[in-house]
Design brief:
- With about 100 residues, this protein is mostly helical.
- About 60% of the residues lie in helices and about 0% in strands.
- It contains 3 helices and no strands.
- The longest helix has 21 residues.
- It is rod-shaped.
- The two termini are about 50 Å apart.
Length: about 100
């Protein structure tokens, strides 16, 4: 055996090595190498960020609801359902964009 590996003959040494290995694995889960060191533009173009698009989709849904409830213009009432539907579908799609 090499000097850097803990021996399993002493219960304390093997237990401490196992604890150290578990602590390291919790701090560095597999498949997440380099996740903290993102470079600008690594998650795709800035235009495909979730925040602004979710806000736009929410505003579109709200606009469709206002169009549905207003009693003045029949054209707004006519297009209210398609506006709500477009905002809802957009929100579902945009929720998969990176933050």
């Amino acid at each position: 055996m090499t000097g850097s590996q803990p021996t399993k003959t002493a219960a304390g040494n093997g237990l401490e090595a196992a604890r150290a290995r578990i602590a390291y694995q919790r701090a560095h889960p597999p498949g997440r190498e380099g996740a903290g060191a993102e470079t600008p533009g690594s998650a795709g173009p800035r235009i495909f960020r979730r925040g602004p698009w979710e806000l736009f989709a929410t505003v579109l849904i709200g606009l469709g609801v206002v169009m549905l409830m207003q009693p003045f213009a029949l054209a707004l009432f006519t297009y209210s359902f398609i506006t709500i539907l477009t905002g809802t579908v957009m929100f579902i799609i945009v929720s998969h964009f990176p933050e």
